[in-house]
Amino acid sequence: MNTIWHRKPNLSEIKKMSKKTIDEYLGIEITEVGDDFLAGKIPVNETTSQPYGIIHGGANIVLAESLGSIACAHVIDVEKEICFGQEVNASHIRPVFSGFVTGVAKPLHIGRGTHIWQIELKNEQDKLSCFVKLTMAIKKRADLNY
Prior knowledge:
By secondary structure, the protein is an alpha+beta fold. The chain contains three helices and six strands, in the order ααββαββββ. The protein has helices at 11-17, 22-26, 57-75; strands at residues 29-33, 38-43, 81-92, 100-110, 114-122, 128-140.
């Protein structure tokens, strides 16, 4: 299989880049890189749960958007382009009360102007807990007005 990466993600570099970000605050960890996917996890704890003791839907979305965004940034040439979230759609399927939620991001579409990522989140019993579709906008750095 051919790889999707322009620059293959390096787990230690990603960890350094995550310092002092929402990923570090919530305990998100990128755990695996394949030829066509990026995987990570988030703990279910007092920082990520809602008042009923289950993982907060927003925490699921942060994990999914982090996986998709990090993956997307390694598919494009970041010297020439920038990517950012344009739309996120999540279906929360089952509650997770403890342990970790793991996620795997895979591309559905890699185009010049948009990437669409599918992120499946699962509980520790490998049951689907949330399904996310993330659309990323890709822009030429030269075209941006900051």
